[in-house]
Every structure is written in C-alpha cells, then in structure tokens.
Design goal:
InterPro entries: FG-GAP, Int_alpha_beta-p, Integrin_alpha_N
Number of strands: 29
Helix content: under 10%
Strand content: 25-35%
Radius of gyration: 21 Å
Strand order of the largest sheet: 20-21-22-23-24
Largest sheet: 5 strands, mixed
Number of helices: 1
Organism: Streptomyces muensis
Distance between the termini: 33 Å
Protein name: Integrin alpha
Keywords: Glycoprotein, Integrin, Repeat, Signal
Shape: globular
Order of helices and strands: HEEEEEEEEEEEEEEEEEEEEEEEEEEEEE
GO biological process, one term: integrin-mediated signaling pathway
C-alpha cells in the first residue's frame, strides 16, 4: 500500500474521516507581570487558561487548506490568529499544508508561560512534498509568539533540527504530544508515520525532544538503545501515527502493524522517560495477539489508531507513578457487526508491566447507545485525571470516545457522537452520551463525523464540530460529569468573541 496512505492512518477503512483541513490577527492579549508556573495552557502568564482552536483546512491569503490556529485568551483578554502568512511565523501558506492538523501544549523553556506546538504534516520541505514540519511557538507576558523568542522549527534535513534528509510523505507532525516528566524536564514527541527505513516504506518513527536544550533523537521499531522497541519495522506499520504521554510514561501507536499475516491489525509500544544517550527506555508492546489482551487480531482492526493516557494512582499508593493507557480499536468487529469499534484500557506500572483493566464498546452492559456497523467507536480519544495526586476513581478518571460513524436514522448517516465513560470501575456505571441535537447544540445532519475532534482539560471536555451545517460549526466545552444529552458550558464559534468569521473546518483540533 505504501504511499497511498496520504491523509489518514485509517485510509483502508475510512480515509474521508480525516479530511479536515483567517489569517488575521485579533485583539492583543493583556500583559501579565510574570508567568506563573503550574497553570495549564496559560500562554500570556496571567494565571488563566487559554485555548487554541485550529482550522487546518482554512484558506489563507487565497491558498486552500493552508491552515490557521485561533488562540482565545482566558478572561476575555482577546484573540489572535496564527498562520504562516505572518512575518513572525516561518514558512508561507501553501496548498494543503494543514497548519494546525495536530497541536500540543507544554512549557518548553520552563519560564512559566505555556508554549504551543503546531504540526503541519503536509508541509513541503524544499522539493519534497508532504515531508512535514512542527513549530513551537513560545508564550510570553505579551501573549503567544509575541515575546523575544522566535518560533522553534522542527523538520528534516542536513543541519536541521531533526537531521537526516527531508523525504516526501514522511508526515512529520502528523501527531504530537508534550508535557513535563516526573522529574520536571520538558519533553516533546513528534510522530512521523510516513518515515521510510531503507526500502521499507511507511514503517514510521517518532522524535523524542528532551529538556530545555531540546535534544533530539529519532526512534523506530528497529532502534535498539537501552532495550528493544516492540515490534519490527515493516511496510505500512505507520509507527508514530498516534502519541500519548504522562509524566511517567508515553505510548506510540502503529495502527498499520501486521500481526503475523493479519494486516493492519495494529499495535502500541510504550516507554518511560528515562534516558540513555538521549533515548527513552522501551518497556513493552501491546497487541491483540497476546493472550492477556482481549479480542483477536483481525484485518483492519487498527488497534492504536487513537490512544490517550492519564496518570493513575491505585488504592494504597502514596505517589502517582503508574498510568492508564486507553487504546482505540475503531475497526473492531463485534461478532457480525463490522467496524463497530471498541476501546481497551491498560494499567502500566512503574516497572513497565501491564494489565488490561477494561473493554468498552456500545454493547457493554449499561453503556448508552448500541453498536452498529461502521460506527468506528474509538476513532478518537481524550482522557483526563482531574485529581492525579489522590487515589484514582471513576469520578476522577474519565475518557471521551469519538464515534464518528454513528447514525441517527438513514437521513443522518455518519452524524457521529461522543461517549463519555469512567476509566475505573464498570464503564456503564456512570457513562453518558452526547451528539448533535442531543447536548451538542449543532443540528443533526449527514456526514458531520462528530467525535473526530476532542480535547481534554481538567475542567472541560472540548468537542469540535468542524463539519455539517455552517451555523453549527464550533467548539463546545462540556463538564466531564455532563449527563446524557447535557448542555455545554462554553462555546467558541467563528464570528463570535473576537474569533474571525468564516473558516472551513474550525475546531478540527483543539487544545
């Protein structure tokens, strides 16, 4: 299959589901005296959370799908729009770059202001199309990308931050994840699932960027430093398609992984942040061919197409050194229900051992809705632990599960929806369901694919609705304990609150 996989790790089943993907500034952010540490997603240092909403399909200066990122400062302190048409942002708008296709937030330089990571996996580098690039835009007391630090670029090439040589269709920045390790060191993960290793096309890789010095190493499935990475680099593995991390662990999805002769069965490798010669330590791998993991490997399951991870503290523990890893299996067949999808939850201990703690699908006892063919339950995930320093419960650890293929009557095919479930205890004990017209204010319509855009914060679950009727395209913030059909408490919408009107796929990515 090789380079036919252009826009989606799920092209074999649902390539259209990832076909997302204006360039003007807004009111400047009010300056703060200093950047306080410990406030998540605070780009301007005023102690209030800010929000980044991407439209990777936005037209910029007449260039289609160049992409844009809208930043809304908390406390009513204005908005700004970031595109490659701005002098302070490297590059120029090009057709199909999809700037903002992926995003992450962390404090890269430990100055207390949050910094924004923006991926443009279809950026052309020189003459190499869709090689991809990632920007780190720094926060400051004057706002995002408004201080003295220039944008840090990550892309391939001789004497470039990622080294090697730029190659067509590597898709650097297809996925990104970032944070701070338990020892307080910043880290950034950059996925490059189209990376070819020798003649092995689309084997995939990721880059680990460590510390304030931003030291970079590339890791793939044939890397053997401080232990072997799970799996073997093979064509179409697409290792690095999905990324997730906590202060103690991180995970890397390879949804194209073949298990024996079963193609696109999928797998996930997991690591900790302990570095040897700059390389993180591999701990193990997960796949449905293992006896201790439910399900059976099947063609097109795409185990690991979406992953999410949160800190976990079991009962009796005095510190939080474990993680819960949530794995989406959107192509999972439930008996004869093809591509209904499922989600599996794993506990990762500090020593690196794992155990499966839950299987969730729409046929699970007491879970809302019902599994149907083509639902693709688990195509997207967003998980949260709102209280990581206490014993984890079903109230403090939650996961939002995207179900973009969900239908409501034949005239609203692929309307989509979002299932919210506890990560501890029975999934159906406190789950809820929202979809367009039922909690989500956008009216139901065909091909809305709701559930493709999810973002997690400690206080709110963000659900982007980038498709469907124009009047309903927005990002809606729901409390994590929202009842089935409950209303959002926050809304970001083009043309409102200082956000420019228009756009194409506003809310396709939100952080």
């Amino acid at each position: 299959m090789g380079k036919t996989w252009r826009r989606s790790a799920a092209a074999a089943i649902a390539g259209a589901f990832l076909a997302w993907g204006v360039g003007t500034g807004g009111t400047p952010a009010a300056a703060a005296v200093a950047c306080p540490s410990g406030v998540e997603s605070d780009f301007n240092g005023d102690g209030t959370r800010d929000t980044a909403v991407a439209d990777p399909e936005a037209t910029v200066d007449g260039v289609a799908k160049a992409g844009a990122v809208h930043v809304v400062y908390g406390g009513g302190k204005g908005t700004t729009t970031l595109t490659q048409a701005l002098d302070a942002v490297p590059g120029v708008p090009e057709t199909g770059d999809q700037y903002g296709y992926s995003m992450a937030v962390y404090d890269a330089d430990l100055d207390g202001c949050s910094d924004l990571v923006v991926g443009a996996p279809y950026e052309d580098i020189g003459t190499e199309p869709d090689s991809g690039a990632v920007h780190v835009l720094y926060g400051s007391t004057s706002g995002l990308n408004a201080g003295s630090k220039p944008v840090k670029e990550f892309f391939q090439g001789t004497d470039r931050p990622l080294g090697g040589g730029a190659e067509a269709d590597d898709w650097v920045g297809y996925a990104v994840a970032a944070g701070k390790t338990s020892s307080g060191s910043p880290f950034l993960l950059i996925g490059s699932p189209g990376e070819s290793l020798g003649t092995t096309e689309d084997a995939g890789a990721f880059y680990y960027v460590s510390g304030t010095a931003q030291n970079v190493v590339m890791v793939h499935q044939d890397t053997d430093v401080a232990g072997a990475v799970s799996g073997t680099a093979e064509q179409d593995d697409r290792f690095g398609s999905s990324l997730a991390a906590t202060p103690t662990h991180f995970a890397v999805g390879s949804p194209g992984e073949a298990l024996g002769s079963v193609t696109f069965a999928g797998g996930v490798g997991y690591f900790n942040h302990t570095l040897t010669s700059g390389y993180p330590k591999p701990l193990g791998g997960l796949g449905q061919d293992q006896d201790t993991i439910s399900g059976a490997e099947e063609v097109g399951d795409q185990f690991g197409d979406a992953i999410s991870m949160v800190p976990y503290r079991p009962s009796g523990a005095t510190s939080t050194t474990e993680s819960l890893l949530v794995v989406g299996v959107p192509g999972e067949d439930l008996l004869t229900t093809v591509d209904a999808g499922a989600v599996q939850v794993f506990r990762i201990t500090s020593s690196g051992s794992f155990s499966q703690t839950a299987w969730i699908d729409q046929n699970t006892a007491d879970v809302h809705e019902e599994a149907e063919a083509g639902d693709l339950f688990g195509k997207r995930l967003a998980a949260v632990n709102v209280s990581p320093n206490i014993t984890s419960t079903g109230t403090t650890t939650r996961v939002a599960i995207g179900v973009p293929g969900e239908e409501w009557a034949e005239d609203n095919a692929d309307k989509g929806g979002v299932q919210i479930a506890p990560l501890v205890g029975a999934p159906g004990a406190s789950d809820s369901w929202i979809d367009p017209g039922y909690g989500i204010p956008s009216a139901a319509a065909p091909r809305m694919l709701t559930g493709l855009a999810l973002g997690a914060t400690p206080s709110l679950l963000y659900v982007g609705v980038p498709y469907g009727p124009v009047e309903g395209r927005a990002v809606y913030g729901f409390p994590w304990n929202v009842p089935a059909g409950g209303a959002p408490t926050q809304t970001f919408k083009p043309g409102e609150g200082g956000i420019p009107a228009g756009g194409v796929a506003f809310g396709a990515t939100v952080r």
